[in-house]
Task: inverse folding
């Protein structure tokens, strides 16, 4: 009997990792991605110990990750990670080495479930956070704008940070910058402010918009922050959003993981790392309840999905709330920027570690459906 086929919707960060684990377990995963290729949007993120522990289970992967370890944590105040595309490409290449098939330009728009299979209809076209096809499973919902906007990019290492592989927090009047090395001579940075709602599309700004940011008020920021802004490349601007917490992460033979299940603002740096934890526990429970890869009955999947959800839902929900609270704490105005700095210095890293230690898909609305569908025994959705 042929091994069970599994659809994974999304070839971002979590999709290829999940596919590799499924393939090595004996399943036949296929990744469907709405975009035409690896995304150029976004700039960088941090891999933390919990995420790296999961990735280390894939032979020779961690050694190839294009990032740099941090040597110190620096806090600065004044009053007035890994490059995403490189890491994603590494994961895609690793998945292909494991004979995982990836189909680009495929947007899942409709699901029809039977007793032992799922029919998935695909279309070409894409959209962002505000048109998410987890609606197809759980109904209409509104993404909740946090009131925070981010501007970020990648820049040559400024003189003040040369020969220092450090994660830097810069606190200013109504703004916060986090910066960290992504190469020996490059830093990734992101500035969070309160502002008008901006769509979360992570797209690079046009030339005029980037120049406006480079020459704007942020360019005068001290402690190397202004230098990063003035020399920024691939500058992006996006709003930060939360979604309502789901009461369930699965429906029938379809289950969510990663950002599809628990999207979070980035202030704890745990988004990708929590997705990797999802994958680890999902695979562990799959092995526990379903020893044979060609017998994916709905009854057995219900056991897997229920245990997975019970283990992860409450813990990730608390982390999402903690990330939002961290953002509120970091972006302060006036003298509060100084008054709170002492406690921030002492508590920021402690809070991150507490959440990290305690807490061990995006599908989009159709435009033009294709004529056919694919039938598989299990669907895993992620973003």
Result:
């Amino acid at each position: 009997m042929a091994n069970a086929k599994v659809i994974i919707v999304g070839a971002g960060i979590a999709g290829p990792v999940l596919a590799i684990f499924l393939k090595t377990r004996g399943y036949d995963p296929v990744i469907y991605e709405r975009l035409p290729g690896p995304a150029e949007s976004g700039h960088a993120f941090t891999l933390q110990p919990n995420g790296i522990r999961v990735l280390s289970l894939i032979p020779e992967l961690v050694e190839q990750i294009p990032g740099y370890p941090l040597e110190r944590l620096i806090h600065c105040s004044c009053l007035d990670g890994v490059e995403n595309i490189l890491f994603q490409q590494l994961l895609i290449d690793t998945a292909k080495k494991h004979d995982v098939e990836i189909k680009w330009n495929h947007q899942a728009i409709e699901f029809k479930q039977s007793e032992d299979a799922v029919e998935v209809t695909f279309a070409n076209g894409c959209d962002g956070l505000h048109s998410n096809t987890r609606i197809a499973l759980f109904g209409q919902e509104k993404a909740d704008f946090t009131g925070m906007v981010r501007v970020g990019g990648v820049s040559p290492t400024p003189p003040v940070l040369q020969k220092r592989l450090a994660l830097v927090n810069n606190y200013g009047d109504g703004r916060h910058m986090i910066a960290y090395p992504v190469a020996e001579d490059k830093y990734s940075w992101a500035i969070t402010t309160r502002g008008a709602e901006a769509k979360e599309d992570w797209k690079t700004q046009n030339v005029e918009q980037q120049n406006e940011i480079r020459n704007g008020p942020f360019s005068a920021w001290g402690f190397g922050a202004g230098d990063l802004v003035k020399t920024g490349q691939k500058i992006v601007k996006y709003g930060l959003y939360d979604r309502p917490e789901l009461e369930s992460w699965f429906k029938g033979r379809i289950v969510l993981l990663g950002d599809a299940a628990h999207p979070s603002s980035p202030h704890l740096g745990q988004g990708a790392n929590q997705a990797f934890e999802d994958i680890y526990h999902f695979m562990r429970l799959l092995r526990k309840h379903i020893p044979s890869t060609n017998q994916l009955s709905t009854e057995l999947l219900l056991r897997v999905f229920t245990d997975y959800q019970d283990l992860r839902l409450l813990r990730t929900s608390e982390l999402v709330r903690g990330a939002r609270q961290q953002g509120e704490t970091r972006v302060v105005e006036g003298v509060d920027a100084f008054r709170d700095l002492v406690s921030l210095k002492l508590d920021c890293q402690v809070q991150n570690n507490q959440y990290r230690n305690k807490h061990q898909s995006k599908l989009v609305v159709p435009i033009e459906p294709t004529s056919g569908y694919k039938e598989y025994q299990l669907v895993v959705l992620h973003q």
Remarks:
- The CA atoms of residues 16 and 29 lie 10 Å apart.
- Confidence is low (pLDDT under 50) at residues 125-131, 359-374.
